[in-house]
C-alpha cells in the first residue's frame, strides 16, 4: 500500500467495484449498490512470463468516478499489471530467479475490509478517505475497489445519519459523534451455492463513536443508529446485507482510529471467513487482510513450500491465519505464532476451535515483540514464516536470520536465549503432541538445537522487501529459491510478494541444478 494518507492509518484505496476478471455479475439483490462497471476482461492469471500478458490496458481500466479526487488509487489503467511489476520482474531476474510469477487476482470489488473516515454534516455525510496530503475527506460511494456490499452498507449508513441526525466528527473542534466506520465483508456462507458466496457477502460494521463508553449520554443515539441499519439490512430483509454491528469508543484527539473499548451491538458476534483451507475467525479489533481472495491464493501457494510434518514459526502472525492454515493442511509437528497485538489472540483461539481435530500438532500463540530477542523464536523451527508490516523486518530479526550459522557452529544457545526460553510465561499452547516433552515455556531439547532451513517472506512493502532480501542474500546465509507476486491492491503501485529462501548461499545447488534436470534441495527441511 503505497499511499501516504496523511497521519492517519487509513488503508489506501485501490480500485473499483466488484467484478473480477472472472466475469461475475453484480448481485441483483443488494440494494443501493453502484451501477456495474463495464464488462470485465476474461480471467487473467499470469503465471509464466508476466511481461507477455496479452490483455489490453483499456479492458483492465478502473472506471471509477472518484479516481481524480480519492487518494486510494494511483493508477487508472492496466490494473492487471501494476507499473511496479516490471521492476519486480527485473529485480528477481537480477538475483537469479527467472521463474517469478504474478497473479493479477480480482481487479474490482476486491476490498473486503475498509476503514473510512466520517466527516461533513448529518444531512450530507462524507464517508471515505483523505484527499492526499490533507484531512479533507473524499466521499467515495461508488468506489470500485470496495466489495459492493461495503458501498451498499455505506449508503445505508448515510441514510441513517440523515434520518437520526447523527453528527459526523469534527476534527478541529473534537465534536460530533461518528468518527470512522470499519466495514469488513464475510463471503463465507455455506447455505449459498459456492458461486454466489462472494457477491452476497455480508458486512460487519464497526462504528467508531466519539464518547468514552456506553454510559455516555450519546449512547442512545448510537443504539438508534445501529437499530436503524439492522432493521433495513439485517436478516429479516430480503437481502441480508449486514452481518453484525459493533461499537468502538474513541475520544482521543490523535489520529489513532480505534480506542480500546469495544462493544458488540447486534447480529452474530462471531465473524468467519474461509481462507487457506480453514475457517478463520476475525474480530473487528485485529488485523485482517483486505483482499480475501488474493490472500487465499497466496496461502495455497505458500502451503506447497512447507513439508508435511514441519515445525513452523509464524512471525508477525496477527491472528495466526498463516500458521494455522499450515497446521491444518501440512500436518505440522508444531506451529508457533508470534504477534505483538494482544487483540489478535481471541480470533486465534476461535480459529483453532474449528481446525480439523485430526491434526496432531502443537499449536501456540505468543504475544511478543519479534524485535526483542528474536533468536529463541527461530530455534527449533524448520520453517520460519515472516509477514511484517510495510516497513519490513525488524533489524534485530534480520540480524538473527543473517547469523544463524554462527549459532549452529556453537551448538549452544546464547545465555539470553536459554533464559528466555525457560522463563517465558504461559505461552498459549493449544495442543500437544503426545510424544512431545514440550510444555509451557519449555522447548524440547531436539527442537532447541535445530535451526530453520526455509524462510518464507510475505511482503506488502516492496522497497523494504528489496532491502531485506539483499541483506539476507549478502549474508550468504540464505539464497532465494522462488518468488511469486500477487495483486493485493490493484490500482496502486504495490505488489505483494511471496518469497521462499533456503539456507546456504545456493551456489552448489545451482551448479548441480544446471547439470541435472531436476534436483530437490536435499536436506532442505532437515535439521542442520
Ligand atoms: C501484515 S500484518 C500480518 C498479519 C498476519 N500474518 C495475517 O496475514 O493476518 C503484520 C502483523 O505484524 C504485527 N506486528 C508488527 N510489529 C510487530 C512486532 N515487532 N512483533 C510482533 N508482531 C508485530 C502487527 O500487529 C500485524 O498483526
TrEMBL record:
Species assigned in the record: Sesamum alatum
Coiled coil (residue ranges): none
CDD domains: AdoMet_MTases (cd02440)
Region (Disordered): 28-48
Family statement: Belongs to the class I-like SAM-binding methyltransferase superfamily. RNA M5U methyltransferase family.
Protein name, per record: RNA methyltransferase pc1998
Binding site for S-adenosyl-L-methionine: 289, 316, 339, 387
Record keywords: Methyltransferase, S-adenosyl-L-methionine, Transferase
Pfam families (alphabetical): Cons_hypoth95
Presence of the UniProt keyword DNA-binding in the record: no
Bias kind Pro residues: ranges: 28-43
Superkingdom of the organism of origin: Eukaryota
PROSITE patterns given in the database record: SAM_MT_RNA_M5U (PS51687)
GO biological process terms held by the UniProt record: methylation; RNA processing
Catalytic residue positions: 460 (nucleophile)
GO molecular function terms listed in the Swiss-Prot or TrEMBL record: RNA methyltransferase activity
